[in-house]
Design a protein that fits this description.
The chain is an all-alpha fold and 143 residues long. The radius of gyration is 22 Å and the shape is elongated. The protein has a domain of 93 residues: Helix Hairpins (Orthogonal Bundle).
């Protein structure tokens, strides 16, 4: 039975009240806070199976590049493209989090948003993989 002095208690179906906005940071404090936020995002991304698979792909490409003795420009290109994969996967994960919050039940809106975000990831993975394959093909063909 609820305590009559305090009312029925919090409603479990009601979202918690919004927290106050933290003060705006500038200078080194802003840089430190942004770095912490980026590292928290990376930690969140590591919880995604798809990202761990993409990381395994990048490690396999690095091993193949090392064995094939590819030039520095190829390493730089692959690293840049992999960072693009990371960025798009992070956006994909953010979109999925937002969609799951806005549409907890199945909906066309949710399916379309997730499909489009998945397409973006697939596109950059194709570019990364194609680049790696071309570099390795050239290195192994003696060119």
């Amino acid at each position: 039975m609820p305590d009559p002095h305090f009312g029925p208690g919090p409603d479990p179906n009601r979202p918690p009240p919004p927290r106050p906005r933290p003060p705006r940071l500038t200078g080194a404090a802003h840089l430190l806070a942004a770095t912490r936020a980026a590292l928290a995002g990376l930690q969140r991304l590591l919880a995604e199976a798809a990202f761990r698979q993409e990381l395994a792909l990048a490690l396999a490409v690095a091993a193949a590049f090392a064995l094939a003795g590819v030039p520095g420009w190829a390493w730089a290109g692959a690293a840049g493209l992999f960072l693009l994969v990371v960025a798009v996967e992070a956006l994909n994960t953010a979109i999925e989090e937002i969609v799951d919050r806005l549409s907890p039940d199945w909906s066309d809106f949710a399916r379309n948003a997730k499909d489009l975000a998945g397409l973006a990831v697939a596109c950059v993975l194709i570019v990364f993989s194609g680049f790696a394959a071309l570099v390795l093909w050239q290195a192994l063909a003696g060119g």
